[in-house]
Amino acid sequence: MEVELRQFASAAEMTLRQKAELDNVLLKYHDVFEGFEIAGDELEKAWDTYQGRQWRGNAIGDLLNAVTRFIHSWLSAKKAKRELEGNNESA
Question: pTM (2 decimals)?
Fold first, then answer.
C-alpha cells in the first residue's frame, strides 16, 4: 500500500508540474494573440483611412506606424515560438 501511495504522489506531482507548464504556454500564446489582434485592428483602421483618403492628419504615417506595430507583434510571436520549442527540447 505504501508503494502505491508513493507512486500516486509522484504521478500527482508530475501532473501538477505539467499543468503549470501548460498554463505558462497558454499564457504566452494569449499574450501573442492579443498583441496580434490589437496590431491587426490598428492596421486595418489605418489602411481603411489611407484607402478612403480620409486625410485627417498624416494617414501614411499612421499606416506605417500600424505596420511597424504589426511587425513587432509578428517578431514577438516568432520569439515565443522559439522559446517554447527550446523548452520542449529540454523537457
Answer: 0.55
Query: Interior CA angle at 81 toward 75 and 85, to 5°?
Result: 150
77, 36 Cβ separation under 8 angstroms: yes
Cβ-contact 86, 78 below 8 angstroms: no
Supply the angle between the helices 59-90 and 2-51 in degrees, to the nearest 10: 160
Q: Which amino acid is at 13?
A: E
- Asked if 62 contacts 46 with a C-beta cutoff of 8 angstroms, the reply is yes
How far is it, in rounded angstroms, from Cα 55 to Cα 76? 31
pLDDT tens digits in sequence order for the chain, 91 residues long = 777 767 777 777 777 777 888 888 888 888 888 888 888 888 888 888 777 765 566 778 888 888 988 898 888 888 888 887 776 655 5
Q: Could you count the other beta carbons within 10 Å of the beta carbon of residue 24?
A: 12
